[in-house]
Design a protein that fits this description.
Helices cover about 0% and strands about 45% of the residues. It is an all-beta fold. It has one domain: SH3 type barrels, CATH 2.30.30. Strand 2 and strand 3 form a beta hairpin. The radius of gyration is 17 Å and the shape is elongated.
Length: about 100
């Protein structure tokens, strides 16, 4: 089970975009995520008429390492670490380390 999933609201805690907040668009692999509007670069794209791609300079969100992002806690309005907890029915859920609240309830 991953601590950070697609759709989670995260805060960048290290790097050039430190302090920015956004939603996780996708997980590239086990250790990298793409966050909406964060780590944006200018990419030069060649035109490809077969695929219908127009050439030019486009903005693209590049992947970040998961160690450089932390889940946003709406209660404390800060970045927070994530842990796991087993419920009485045997279900495994994510919880915030600071206050023990369940993530995404």
């Amino acid at each position: 089970m991953e601590k950070i999933r697609k759709g989670d609201e995260v805060v960048v805690i290290a790097g050039k975009d430190k302090g920015k907040r956004g939603a996780v668009v996708r997980r590239v692999d086990d250790e990298h995520v793409v966050v909406e509007g964060v780590n944006r670069v200018k990419k030069h794209v060649k035109p490809n008429p077969v695929k219908g791609v127009v050439g030019g300079v486009v903005d693209k969100d590049m992947p970040l390492h998961v160690s450089n992002v932390a889940l946003f806690n709406p209660v404390t309005k800060k970045a927070d670490r994530v842990g796991f907890k087993l419920l009485e029915d045997g279900k495994k859920v994510r919880v915030f380390k600071s206050n023990g609240e369940q993530v995404g309830v």
